[in-house]
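User: I'm curious whether this sequence folds into something compact or stays loose and floppy. Could you predict its structure so I can see for myself?
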Amino acid sequence: MNQEDLLEGITKKYEAIGQDANTHLSGLLHSRPITYWDYIQTDALLNLQIQRSNLPDEMVFIMYHQINELLFKMILWEIEQVAFKEDLSTKFFADRLYRISRYFDMLSSSFKIMKDGMDVQQYMKFRDTLTPASGFQSAQYRKIEFASTELIHLIDFRFRETIDRDTPFSHAYEHLYWQAAGKDHKTGKKSTLITLFEERYMDDFIVFMKTYNTNNLWSKFKSLPPKDQEDIPLRNAMRHYDHTVNVKWVMEHYHAAGKYLLSGKKDAEATGGSDWRKYMHPRYQKRIFFPELWSKKEIDNWGISNLKTYQKL
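Assistant: Here's the prediction. I'll summarize afterward.
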């Protein structure tokens, strides 16, 4: 494009929003060139690591989790594109699902940083300074779950028959599967882990749940024409995503946690106080985003060794 065409395009762009193009062009005379460190905000990122102890490997722990949160943000960005796209095609849907799966592949493989990249003795010391904080309290990960499937698939299996589409969101929230990590369902008493988490995020979660009630990935899939719902590449992309998130990534997390929490003479509980083995292992809660895309045998064996590698259709 030559200079004349560029100027014409710039003029039209700013006229369309009621702006004077000459003012913006004049501003370019005084603006600084963009640099990598300004664009990426490197200085801000590198000053977000604040240790609570003097143990060197705590820095690994902090940065590792900050990287996770950045990847969670990327995942939510991709889901949003599917959730609110008009004229959603099977190719666009599948392509975004594979993007998300690749992010979770990174998350899964990165657990080696936690499992093999920290000194056990250091971790068992600095973890005491983190109580009652827990990775459980990642709000972005909870939003990924809400945005991926219908709410009923995230309800504790013991209460699913009591929940339906007419159930108030606040009531459904109280019976989400992860409430089992810090709530005594017999007494209703919640741990500090859950209480602090809800004080910070529950109102935001309720709004988010409403927003994605009919815009989650499973609902978007079910809204496609019947022929599109039979598209094999899309169905495989959904199965791959489901297995990657709810089996592969979870089990990598489970094994990494086990290395540290089972390292002493007595089993340690998670920093938030949860029964981490029953809470985390997929065979207990059978967290499945798209159950209709799996056979009964696959669901029965969810999280068990013979489903380590999902099968394509």
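Summary: Residues 3-31 form one domain. The chain is about 60% helix and 0% strand.
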